[in-house]
Amino acid sequence: MKKIVLAFLTFSAILLSSCSKGSYMNVIPDNATAIIAVDAPNSGLKIDAEGIDTSEKIYLFETSDGALCLAAKCTLSGNGFNILQDKWVCGYDDGKMLIMGPVLPAQQDETKKRIQRMLSQEEEESIVGTPMLQRLDSITSPIALVAQSSALPEQFATYFTLGAPRGANPSQVCIAAKIALADGVMQILGTNFSINKSVAKALDDTNRNFRPLKGTFSAETARQFFSLMMNVEGEKLLQMLQQNAGLQALLAGINTAVDMDNILRSVDGDLAFMVDSTLTNMQIKAQLKNREFLKDIAYWKSSCPAGTSISDRGKDTWLFQGDDLSFLFGVTSDNQFFGKLTRRQNADSSQMISAALEMLTPFVGELKSIVYLIESEE
Which of 4, 106, 258, 309 sits at a 20 to 30 Å CA gap from 32? Predict the structure, then answer.
């Protein structure tokens, strides 16, 4: 599974243990699927950059076949290779440095040959002058990201591609984002775009539905592993969700008894989807324009499918229980919807995330949460 969001973690210890101007960017191939540009002195990242010229940007990127790489201007003289942490191959030549991995020991010789070819690339073979790099350069942030949705882990792409037209090729839907790190929170302010004209028009139309955030749920999202925040009107949100197969799948079990469409139509304001480190258990918080759907709950109770039930859990609070999930939901006195979807634990996913966070710690400190904010560019 591809891990561009986790690229930060894989390069943590590399930067702690470890290239003419502009020419080092020639090592980045023109078909790279994701690029992160880091302005090291202003990024807030813990970079001990011996051998790397931090006066120039450092680029983390993912190749079309999923390899994670780092490109930087190099201060080391001559050329050569180093093996880092037994799984990363570092090559440098003529002021350019390229790190690639992770690779098994048996793959290191072949990786060295690949790195040497990339270090020798001409500008016309590189990312230089491409729309991806132009978009990246337009982002004013110490840490900037441009990525095809196909480069993102499947579970993350579900959230990052909200608003993409149904049937769009994942390589056509891209994310452009500013990234900031503070107090253990990685905040990503992003928007979708596409180089394909028809997909771009659809995304532009959708992006106009997002409004400036009020920050209603900021404190709560900072306590969750991953959150998606937006400010939107419910009917427009529902149309976007109906185009997103991943989020539809997450809500499918609830919809057997609870009319989530009707609930979502009542949304008007800030909304947050929040998930734990397994990326399966979800919380929903939203500002409402009305609570008309409460009139339907008696019907929902009486029409639950066999093996499921809805029971009272306090004032304006209910619990839906099914075979493999439960959904606690309700409305507060100030018209905020809350829902907590609990599924059986996904041990494999949880272990993968835990291991990734452990690698990230030396690079950014303890990462408590990732918050993705969607706002219109207009």
Answer: 106
